[in-house]
Specification:
It is a single chain. With about 525 residues, the protein is an alpha/beta fold. It has 19 helices and nine strands. It folds into two domains: about 230 residues, Up-down Bundle (ABC transporter transmembrane region fold), CATH 1.20.1560.10; about 200 residues, P-loop containing nucleotide triphosphate hydrolases (Rossmann fold), CATH 3.40.50. The protein has a five-stranded parallel sheet with strand order 6-7-8-3-9, with helices on both faces. A four-stranded antiparallel sheet has the order 2-1-4-5, with helices on one face. Helix 5 runs antiparallel to helix 10. About 30% of the residues are buried.
Length: about 525
């Protein structure tokens, strides 16, 4: 994240500059009060008039600088958050599928919402506010030294004592912030699971148990939020209390200097006012440092997603796909080993076999899901590890059982926001069996509740066919379909023409298998 901040350093510096000017303008108000009080005893009406003009100028400056400071600070946060999310999404979209699936969806939800909000509140704005506070502190001290050097040195001694206190609170804030982030992620995960399975929950009449479970998760999350807030505010008020005692001490020191005649009454009032601008920044700097340190665990979560990724490899070229001594393991369990297959252009392949035999793993491997395989997969003579993932995905399309429906019309559900003419979208929609009335559907319902499972599958096939892939892999395309839809989808698949077509199926007849050029039977691999 530091690199992203560095990119916008000029805006950061401008924000700091305006913030320090705002602090200086506020500090000058103390001198206005001092001037008014001293003018009462030894001034004239003309002096008061000059002070009045100066006061108006200062007040206008405070308003203008305040608005500008708020705008620049907001703009800085906006740019950093926008760039952070851009890098985050780029990292996700360029990562292999298996790497994305290493984290739960709730992890990404939490990181992009709660964690980023914490970064914005407890880090981004503080990166410049802590410097502004430091600048304000320096200006305040300069103003105090102008009044009396000896008195100011005694004030500094008080400040040093106060600066040691915040270190006692850092560990408490850090643990509270980390605990809240973890509990929030756990809550979002549970919420996502329950809401995703709402239909099954209602039909099984298990709402009470899950209702109690989500309330329990929510209670833990809210308790963690409360503890974090308690840690933050406890630190703030603890520091403020110590600071207040120190401020009283400084005021008593100032009173002694006034009684000795070393400063005027007006300057004592000014010193008291300026003390607020001394101890205020001390409190702010201490609190800001604690918040930034406690926020580090959250920034560390974000950091792996903010690394610039250069997609390495060559472009895939069209040709045969060959597996040589291919194998793969998950959690030290060997799923496939020593496979040697050749998939040639202008041929279709059916892969059959029992559940759990590794058919889907093979299909996903061909589509570039995994990197942890052994052996080789060659695409027209180039090993998969040497090919750009985006290039492979352009030519090889995989349709699994986890297709999804966008909250949009049917045409956009097929196009998927790609820059493809509507005429081509209509053409492929008709190819998979949709008529004009269906193509014009504007709403498919939440998660596609207004369409059948067969239509759902046809949409998935249309998406994959839209820009003419070289290899189409369909993994159990008739799973969860009724007999009528099974017949319709199998006929559609048989009619699809792509250079290489690979279909994994357990719904088949001899007639259906005879429509393929080759049948790979996983029963014979054992």
């Amino acid at each position: 994240m530091k690199n992203i901040i560095k990119k916008h350093r000029s805006l950061w510096l401008l924000t700091i500059f305006v913030g320090i000017l705002l602090k200086a303008a506020n500090i000058s108000v103390a001198y206005i009060l001092a001037s008014i009080i001293d003018t009462i005893t030894k001034g004239t009406a003309k002096d008061l008039k000059i002070i009045g003009i100066y006061t108006i100028i200062v007040l206008i400056s405070i308003v203008v600088l305040g608005i500008l400071y708020s705008y620049l600070g907001g703009k800085f946060s906006e740019k950093i958050l926008t760039d952070t999310k851009e890098k985050f999404f780029k990292n996700i979209f360029t990562s292999p599928i298996y790497r994305f699936q290493e984290k739960k969806v709730s992890y990404y939800y939490n990181t992009l919402t709660q964690d980023l909000e914490q970064v914005n509140t407890n880090y981004l704005s503080l990166t410049y506010e802590i410097i502004v506070s430091l600048g304000g502190l320096i200006v305040s001290l300069a103003a105090l030294f102008y009044i009396n050097i000896k008195m100011s040195l005694l004030f500094l001694a008080m400040m040093f004592i106060v600066s040691l206190v915040p270190k006692l609170f850092v560990g408490i804030q850090t643990r509270a912030a980390e605990n809240f982030s973890n509990e929030y992620e756990s809550y979002v995960e549970e919420l996502d699971n329950i809401l995703s399975g709402f239909e099954s929950i209602k039909l099984l009449n298990i709402t009470k148990a899950l209702y109690n479970k989500i309330l329990s998760k929510d209670a833990k999350m809210e308790n963690a939020r409360m503890k974090k807030k308690l840690a933050d505010y406890g630190t703030l008020y603890g520091i403020s209390g110590i600071s207040f005692l120190s401020q009283i001490g400084c005021m008593m020191i100032g009173a002694i200097f006034t009684m000795k005649g070393e400063i005027t009454t007006g300057m004592l009032i000014a010193a008291v006012q300026i003390l607020n601008f001394v101890f205020g920044p001390i409190n702010e700097i201490a609190q800001y440092r604690n918040l930034m340190k406690s926020n580090k665990v959250i920034r560390d979560k974000l950091e792996p997603f903010l690394v610039d990724i250069d997609e390495k490899g060559t472009q895939m070229t069209k040709g045969e796909i060959i597996l040589e001594d291919y194998g793969i393991s998950f959690d030290d369990k060997e799923v496939l080993k020593d496979l040697n297959f050749k998939f040639e252009p202008n041929k279709s392949y059916a892969i059959i076999g029992p559940s759990g035999s590794g058919k889907s793993v093979l299909a996903k491997s061909l589509a570039g899901y995994y990197e942890n395989y052994f052996g080789d997969i060659y695409y027209n003579g180039t090993e998969k590890r040497d090919i750009k993932p985006s290039s492979l995905n352009e030519y090889v399309r995989y349709i699994g059982t986890n297709s999804f429906i966008l909250n949009d019309n049917i045409k956009e559900n097929i196009r998927m926001y790609r820059d493809i003419p509507e005429s081509e979208v209509r053409e492929v929609a008709k190819l998979v069996g949709f008529d004009d009335s269906f193509i014009e559907k504007e709403s498919l319902g939440n998660e596609g509740k207004y369409i059948s499972s067969g239509e759902y599958q046809r949409i998935a096939i249309a998406r994959a066919l839209l820009d003419n892939p070289f290899c189409l892999i369909l993994d159990e395309p008739t799973a969860n379909l009724d007999p009528v839809n099974v017949e319709g989808i199998t006929k559609l698949i048989a009619d699809i023409e792509v250079p290489i077509k690979i279909v994994i199926t357990h719904h088949y007849t001899d007639e259906y298998l005879n429509s393929f050029d080759e049948v790979i039977d996983f029963n014979k691999l054992k």
